[in-house]
Design goal:
single chain, alpha/beta, nine-stranded mixed sheet, five-stranded mixed sheet, elongated
């Protein structure tokens, strides 16, 4: 059984590291290792880290641990020509299952547990490619002789190689595989590919511990993390490990050691950072639902006009529906964040203390949407505060929205509170899709405060329809670097959202089918009574 691409070419033939960064198509999964369909992710894109994509995109990987008959582990040192984590020592083989391979390497979870034939096929392919090791010459049946133990969800920026602005990193659901060959290490044929592996050695437990004490050696962060989270014990009880004693279906998450945090890795980033939702999420629609439908400013304005004429919606109706969608999306995000905080046990919150949300409203319709969202979030149980510096005098409805908030006990402030960093969530409802030019005071200073709270990890920022200050068609043309953690597009995404890299919701269930068709908008299949749905825009 040899692995090749679908055209029959042996994997890696006549290709270098750069070639494989482009050609390898990774398997994107969510935090539960469920496949995310219809997302193409090259190896390069899956490992590119920066401020807008601080953990790239979560994908599937494996770490293979090979042992000889005396239970010595085969360690490898990654080649200096490797683009990510060069020159580090690590376990026998670390790589990825891919789309487009024969045999198929795409396992369906949970059905494939615990055998995972796709992962095992990928490991055979890469052992041969990286080490010239034909494992099938030493074992009878890979399904029986390669033992799956567990999965780890980890990430790490390659700051040791590239510094605090590292352009590369790893973010993976990594399968741990054990295999013991009943041969002495001297009788196992290993012919390293110099573009992948610089050297190798078989080591005992004591020998590895001694190597780890040598400060002159570099180690992969995943290898150290895995060793500290079970591998030492599983290695010591090899018979139990190979008999399935430690095999489990967990996906255990961990952060890297501090030296693998880049400048753009913030305390506010959690387990879901860089994770695309799978189709199993009740709020999620596959990326192909939005291959059309991003509206430019002119089309968005035209659609709004038709909504208030052809179907006869009034402004108050649309604002109530939009604000409710923003509140629903905010609720979903906060619930996810709370679950992860509890799982990671990084912060122990007082369950009686409500989560605080700061909703900053501008003078136009976007601000009205924010006022409605604040009221609903208060009903959802959150402690909500509104900042409304320039109140609209255009229509009495805005005054009514303020009174409705005040009647709910929501403070409505004229300026940014001094304790703005104490709010867990900040909702940016300042400028909508009609905004042009540059922000003026007091909003220039307010946006600076929002970014400060975001950058130091104090607050998670949710933008309504368009991040304030962005051009509705062209995005962050002012180069502010402002990218909220969540975007809630209203009615349908605007053109600037096409390359938005983070969590993206759409609230537009009210859009009549005839208008959706006219404006080439594909409506996502909103489930149940939901007014907002999380989508993937292919970023």
């Amino acid at each position: 059984m040899s692995s090749s691409s679908n055209d029959g070419t042996a994997y890696g033939a006549n290709m270098n590291q750069e070639d494989m960064m482009e050609s390898d198509q990774l398997i994107v999964v969510d935090q539960n290792d469920i496949l995310v369909p219809n997302v193409e992710l090259s190896k390069r894109a899956g490992h590119t880290f920066n401020a807008n994509s601080p953990r790239a995109t979560l994908h599937r990987a494996f770490s293979f641990f090979l042992f000889d008959k005396t239970n010595k582990m085969l360690l490898t040192q990654r080649a200096g020509s490797k683009i990510t984590f060069p020159n580090v020592w690590t376990n026998t083989c670390c790589s990825h299952p891919l789309y487009g391979m024969q045999p198929d390497e795409v396992d369906k979870v949970p059905d494939a547990y615990p055998h995972f034939p796709g992962i095992k096929s990928a490991s055979l392919r890469k052992l041969k490619h990286e080490l010239g090791l034909n494992l099938l010459s030493y074992i009878d049946n890979p399904n029986d002789d390669i033992k799956f133990l567990t999965r780890f969800h980890y990430w790490a920026s390659d700051t040791v190689t590239y510094g605090k602005e590292a352009p590369w990193g790893e973010h993976e659901v990594d399968y741990v595989l054990f295999c013991k060959i009943q041969h002495d290490s001297n009788d196992i044929s290993v012919l390293p590919n110099p573009d992948e592996v610089s050297t190798y050695k078989f080591v005992s437990i004591d020998e590895l511990k001694a190597m780890l004490e040598d400060n002159n050696l570099l180690w992969s962060p995943w290898f150290r993390g895995f060793m500290d989270r079970g591998i030492w014990d599983w290695w010591a009880d090899m018979d139990g490990s190979l008999a399935g004693k430690y095999t489990n279906d967990n996906v255990d998450f961990f952060d890297p050691p501090p030296e693998h945090f880049a400048s753009y890795n913030l305390p506010s980033h959690g387990r879901l950072t860089g994770v695309l939702p799978s189709s199993s999420s009740s709020h999620y629609v596959n990326s192909d639902m939005y291959d059309v439908g991003f509206l430019d400013a002119k089309s968005a304005a035209s659609l709004d006009e038709e909504l208030m004429s052809t179907p006869g919606f009034c402004l108050e109706q649309l604002m109530e529906l939009a604000g409710l969608a923003v509140a629903e999306a905010t609720y979903a995000v906060v619930q996810d964040e709370e679950k992860l905080r509890q799982q990671e046990q990084s912060v122990v919150d007082d369950p009686k203390k409500p989560i605080r949300i700061l909703c900053i409203c501008g003078p136009g319709n976007n601000g009205g949407d924010g006022l409605v969202a604040a009221r609903h979030l208060k009903l959802f149980g959150y402690e909500t505060t509104v900042v409304y510096p320039k109140r609209s005098a255009k229509q009495p409805h805005y005054n009514n929205l303020v009174h409705q908030c005040q009647d709910m006990g929501i403070p409505v402030l004229d300026e940014m509170p001094s304790n703005y960093k104490e709010f867990r969530v900040v909702i940016d409802a300042i400028f909508g899709f009609s905004f042009q030019g540059e922000p003026r005071e007091p909003f220039t200073t307010i946006l600076t405060h929002i970014q400060e709270a975001q950058k130091d990890g104090s607050s998670l920022v949710i933008a309504v329809d368009v991040p304030s200050g962005w051009h509705v068609d062209d995005g962050d043309v002012l180069n502010t670097g402002y990218v909220p953690e969540v975007l809630v597009s209203l009615t349908t995404p605007k053109l600037s959202a096409k390359n938005y890299p983070k969590r993206h919701f759409v609230g537009g269930r009210f859009l009549p089918p005839a208008l959706a068709k006219k404006y080439n908008v594909r409506m996502p299949p909103y489930p149940g009574v939901a007014q907002a749905m999380e989508v993937s825009n292919g970023g």
